[in-house]
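TODO from last week: model Pyrroline-5-carboxylate reductase.
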Amino acid sequence: MASTIPIQTDTFRLGFVGAGKMAESIAKGVVKSGVLPASRIRTAHRDFDRREAFSSFGIKVFEHNHEVVEDSDVVIISVKPQIVKEVVLQLKPLLTEDKLLVSIAAGVKLSDLQEWAGNNRFIRVMPNTPSAVGQAASVMSLGGTASEEDGVLIASLFGAIGRIWRADEKLFDAVTGLSGSGPAYIFLAIDALADGGVAAGLPRDLALGLASQTVLGAAAMAINTGKHPGQLKDDVASPGGTTIAGIHELEKGGFRGVLINAVVAAANRSREFAKR
Ligand SMILES: NC(=O)c1ccc[n+]([C@@H]2O[C@H](COP(=O)([O-])OP(=O)(O)OC[C@H]3O[C@@H](n4cnc5c(N)ncnc54)[C@H](OP(=O)(O)O)[C@@H]3O)[C@@H](O)[C@H]2O)c1
């Protein structure tokens, strides 16, 4: 079966169809981390500025999408979701099963991608906006004929811009509700923490710096210690102390319930979009 032709991990070329923000983040992360040299990455764009964003760090930039596909073994479709179908249909004759195809388009299902491409060697990846700073939380799901080796290769690419998990595609709406929309919930939390600092007498820039760094530090502790967040919370809440007084207020305000509802509401909205 053609799908079993392995991608040569030490020589494969990676192409982006759609030279936007996400493609730039992935390309930069992959080069910076040493996963691939820039000379093995290609893309195409009509605008000078977008071309420069890639060519300035050694990536080959073509005029047209078809040149990217022809010159790549792994092709990441990174255009906006609403034009994915049009772009994939245009490229269909070139999307042969010796190439591994990847889509990062939000809400576009593997079954549709595979049908439009006439190729089941597809992997769908859902990254999130912290990819821009190398801290994406990504989830991937493998299509019909994508092999285990294909999955490992894509995990190594997306591992260069953060962390990646594998999950059944039916969980992608829930993923959207948590990691897709989650950065916005945390921006709101940082803003509110900073407001609290200002209300308690801090200057704004100090309050904002402390709030952002506190969120970063708490997340790093949750990841690096491997302790359950409830345990970490208990560790810093001394009897009759300041932290338990703050926690009491959060619980009175339904903090946990509000966050749970936010994730569920966003996941439900994603499901509604998928039905349209
Ligand atoms: N940004 C994120 O954090 C994030 C997270 C999860 C998933 N995604 C997914 O990633 C994909 C890209 O998002 P993005 O934020 O990188 O968007 P973006 O910056 O708008 O990138 C899309 C790029 O595709 C170009 N383009 C438009 N029509 C094209 C065509 N026919 N052929 C080739 N390129 C074309 C656009 O050029 P023009 O601007 O000149 O039209 C633009 O440079 C989307 O499908 C999105 O759902 C993004």
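Done. The domain at 181-274 is CATH 1.10.3730.10 (ProC C-terminal domain-like fold).
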